[in-house]
Amino acid sequence: MSRKEDSRTRRAQKRAHSTKEAAVGGSALNAAAPADAAGTPPEHTGKPSAGRTETRLRRQRRRRQAATAASAVLVLAAAAAVVAGSVAVDGGSAGRAVDSTAAEVPAGPLSAVCPAPLRLVSGSVAGTDPQFSPVSESAKTSLTAVVLSGAGNPVPASSLLQADGKTALKTIAEDVQDAPPLAGVRSAGVVPNLDVTETTILSAEPSGTLQATANAVVGFSAADGDLAGLAAANCQAPGNDMWIIGARTTVGATAVLRLTNPSESAATVDLELYGSKGRVEGTGTRGILVPPGETKAIVLAGLAANEPGLAVRVRSSGGPVTAMVQQSILRGLTPGGVELIQPAAAASPQQIISGVRIQAPAATKTITGQRGYESAAPVVQVAVPGSTNAVVAVRVLGDDGAVDLPGGGVFTVPAGAVGQLPLDSLPEGTYAVEVTADVSVTAGTVSSRGSKENAPVDLAVAPSGERLGNEHLAVLSPEAVSILSFSAPAGPAEVRLTGVKQDGSLSEEQILTITSGSTVNIAASKIGTGLVAVLVSTTGEPVYGAQVLTSATGTGVSVLPLPKGNIGGTSVPVALGY
User: Fold this and answer.
1) Cα-flanking dihedrals φ and ψ of residue 179, to 5°?
2) Treating both helix axes as pointing N-terminal to C-terminal, what angle do 50-89 and 3-38 enclose, rounded to 10 degrees?
3) Is pLDDT above 60 for 404?
4) Cα dist from 342 to 236, 237, 239, 257, 548, whole Å
5) What single-letter DSSP state applies at residue 409?
6) pTM, to two decimals
7) Mean pLDDT on 87-95
């Protein structure tokens, strides 16, 4: 045999050996799959005991770990398949790219942080970890949670947990349910009006290949005390980068940033602060450690004092966190309102703010004419995080289309600063505000409700929101009257609304039509009676929305952005080169 023939023989043997190893590896992965899919045998039905609840929680934690492991196995399996196929077909040449293969990764469990009740700050108001004192005699904080099933599927296993993510407070739906669901029928697990005293975690397993359609809302109300007013917030999924705008640290205003880490890894948080005169630099904004299962409270006046409009960017490494600002105002001895300020949409050249409630100009004039009440006037605030000044255009969308603003709604905001534009010329109503700029910005509105001199007023902060899609679950607060507000800035669209009742059944679907460049508002009571939530889906051009809450009596007002829709699995592209 010649040297050339001998070389060809060795290459052929090497290719055959590699193909055999790849085939054996793929068989091993396939053989392991049934064992993972087998799961844990179902428990008997009936009233859950403490031991059974703990077993279920341990199972949920194992599922989360298994989901992560399964994702890794799927990616490795796809990679092995690519390698095996490429070796068996053609040895190729060095540096050749192999066609990518998509590995389907299933959706993981849902985990969302529900904020603790509002409390007064006592002692020092600068720095981190302030002390909190009781609120008032009439203060009430309640939580309502709703978890939806898929069509023909049972309600996913779900529960409310303490902040450690391990200790159960209330079961929403069990792993094993008493009766199988009817084909094509959806139902809900509901925990209505649960009194809460601390931070709570909403936990729900996936529904098939999709993340569970679930949400919970914390509502606060008080008729007396320094924190008199109405505030509400959705339970929030943790993240690593978010913006909050609308906080205030002027005299009499207290803004407390709450950072919660629901993960099992420590989180290190850095803050970027933007005020009326530019970027706010100082100590205490970098390397803030938030241990697993804990909440860190930071009084923002200790970092950026005397700011009429403050924007905060929260970035974490390690574990993801949630961020929310507890805002309260006291003008002398008169309560000036409370709010739980939630994150706005990520910075971009266009922002849409929904649920902007403006009271009658005469009422606003009465309030703002008092000394120290100038900040009660409604404004839109715009933060510019970059190094270039922003030319900002504001368009207000009402029931009948765009509403004119004095000066055309165009103004300039310096780089690194927060600017604002008054909205007190608008007639009474609930609007959407479109903010466009030549650079990326983030935005929100701040408004008040009240009409009597020397009387309490309440505060509402509406952050910009993301475009709506399918399966957004707006949970209603039992402490307030709810109105859903939708806008379609770019073109006509439809919104499908389905009420969720306290018994877990769903009402008949209603359809709203939105004309281009307008806003449509509908009271939750017109969607159905006895509702605890409304399921929202949209079609057509981009739609944005929010839930506006008002007290049946008094001046209470609050704005809730609609939560994100359900999330399916993802496809991870796997590409190899050799």
Assistant:
1) -135, 145
2) 160
3) yes
4) 9, 11, 13, 10, 14
5) G
6) 0.81
7) 44
Q: Can you read off the two tokens belonging to residue 414?
A: 């310096």
pLDDT for 108 equals 82
Q: How confident is the model at residue 89, as a pLDDT? A: 40
CA distance 459 to 226: 13
CA dist., res. 304 & res. 36, Å (int): 52
Burial 41-51 (b: 16+ CB within 10 A, else e): eeeeeeebeee
State both tokens at 27: 């068989």
Q: Kindly list the distances between the CA atom of residue 461 and the CA atoms of 43, 199, 343, 363, 440, in Å, as whole numbers in the listed order.
A: 46, 21, 11, 19, 21
3-state secondary structure of 26: helix
pLDDT bin (cut points 50, 70, 90) of residue 352 is very high
pLDDT of residue 227: 94
CB crowding 354-389: b at 16 or more within 10 Å, else e = bbbbbbeeebbebbbeeeebebbbbbbbbbbbeeeb
C-alpha 289/C-alpha 299 separation (Å) is 15
Contact 141, 197 (CB under 8 A): yes
Distance (Å, whole) CA 331 – CA 456: 9
Q: Mind listing the pLDDT tens digit for each residue in 26-42?
A: 443 343 444 343 334 33
262: nearest Cα among 366, 449, 115, 118 = 115
**Strand extents, DSSP E, 83-237:** 101-105, 110-114, 120-122, 127-128, 131-133, 140-148, 158-162, 168-173, 188-195, 200-204, 213-222, 229-234
Q: Could you tell me the two tokens for 455?
A: 């009387």
CB 429 within 8 A of CB 326: no
Q: In what order do the strands lie in the sheet with 518-523?
A: 518-523, 481-488, 544-550, 557-561
Lookup: tokens for 18? 């590699």
Q: What's the mean pLDDT in 457-479? A: 95
Say how far apart CA 281 and CA 303 lie, in whole Å. Answer: 8
- Beta-carbon contacts of residue 487 (< 8 Å; ≥ 6 apart): 352, 354, 397, 432, 514, 518, 519, 520, 543, 544, 545
pLDDT for the residue 185: 87
Q: What is the DSSP string of 414-441?
A: -TT-EEEEE-TTSPSEEEEEEEEEEEEE
Q: The tokens 């902007």 sit on which residue?
A: 356
pLDDT value for 350: 98
pLDDT tens for each residue of 244-299: 999 999 999 999 999 999 999 999 999 999 999 999 998 999 999 999 999 999 99
Here the tokens at position 159 are: 């529960």
Percent of the chain with pLDDT over 70: 76
Task: Please say whether the beta carbons of 379 and 423 come within 8 A.
Answer: yes
Rounded Cα–Cα distance for residues 493 and 467 (Å): 12
The secondary structure of 560-577, three-state, reads EECCCCCCECEEEEECCE
**534 against 125, higher pLDDT:** 534
The set of residues, in sequence order, having a beta carbon less than 8 Å from that of 426 and lying 6+ positions away, is 358, 361, 378, 396, 403, 405
